[in-house]
Amino acid sequence: MQRIDFETVLVESAKLPMVKIDRELFLRKELKGRYNKDVVEKAIEYNPAYAGIQVEEINKIAKSCINAEATRVTALSAAAGIPGGFAMIGTVPADLAQYFGHILRILQELIYLYGWQELHLDSAEMNEETKNLLTLFVGIMFGVNGAVNAVNKIAGQVAKQVAKKLPRKALTKGVVYPVVRKIAALLGVQMTKEIFARGVSKAVPVVGAIISGGLTLATYKPMSEKLRKYLSTCNVADVEYYKGIDGEVVDEVDE
Fold first, then answer.
1. Distance of CA 109 to the CA centre of its chain
2. Can you tell me the distance from the alpha carbon of 112 to that of 21, in angstroms, rounded to the nearest whole number?
3. What digits encode the pLDDT tens for the residues 134-148?
4. Measured between alpha carbons, how far is residue 104 from residues 84, 94, 109, 175, 207 in Å?
5. Which phi-psi region, left, alpha or beta, contains residue 220 (left: φ > 0; alpha: ψ -120 to 50)?
6. Closest to 234 (Cα-Cα) out of 140, 121, 119
7. Where are the alpha helices (DSSP H) in the chain?
8. Residue 102, Cβ neighbours under 10 Å: how many?
């Protein structure tokens, strides 16, 4: 089997309808009704932690989002498990693109809840900065060595930019860039193995659909949880961090 190229999967999956998550609309939807208008607006302008929303509350919202996305992706995977269900999207098997599109959806939802700024998935051509960040986050989800350390270096810069109201700048150049290339190559190997397993499951009609859907549920939620748990430990999601870094006291908020 020809090895899957991770960057190709990333770019093709991002083009699918409904993959792009609008940060402002998403945060407004999830926070409205839980917090007052001023808190919601501050969370959108800066991030939820800067607005005083404790990580324990964000955890509850994040877990709900994971459950919702897992339900959607499992149904799609079961349909794709039926021979003749899906074919190809560009050079990428359609079921992989669909599955990975949902990985990108929950990835965006989680990073926005835990304080990161909007990724540019809606442009005609994905820029290198966005590709690099997505690669690192996906690397964490797949348990690729080096991904956590690389994101740790970036997370500190992101938190400072938010707290000091600094303009956004490129975050993945320099020492992080070679790590990104290595992680992308390792992800390609892992996805090639996954495609082979899915191909075998499709050999038996109906049963193949059940196997495919079950495997998806068994992998999607744990990977999403792995990213959620990591993000919850970063300074970007810590209310206390913002109190200390710029001397501004941000009051905790009530639901």
1. 6
2. 9
3. 999 999 998 888 899
4. 25, 15, 9, 25, 28
5. alpha
6. 140
7. 6-14, 23-31, 37-45, 55-80, 94-113, 128-141, 147-163, 176-201, 207-231, 239-246
8. 23
The conformation of residue 122, written as its DSSP 8-state character, comes to S
Q: Where are the domains of the chain?
A: 6-246
* Backbone phi and psi for residue 88, each to the nearest 5 degrees, phi listed first: -130, 150
135-169 as b/e: b if 16+ CB within 10 A: bbbbbbbbebebbbebbeebbeebbebbbeeeeee
DSSP string, 47-72: -TTTTT--HHHHHHHHHHHHHHHHHH
Gyration radius from the chain CA atoms: 19
* The token pair that represents 39 in the structure block: 């808190």
pLDDT digits (tens, 9 = 90+) for 164-223: 765 555 565 665 667 888 888 888 877 666 554 444 444 444 443 433 444 455 678 899
Give backbone dihedrals phi and psi of 192, rounded to 5 degrees, phi first: -60, -40
Residues 6 or more apart whose CB falls under 8 angstroms from that of 115 comprise 47, 48, 49, 50, 158, 159, 162, 231, 234, 236, 237
- 176 contacts 154 by C-beta, under 8 angstroms: yes
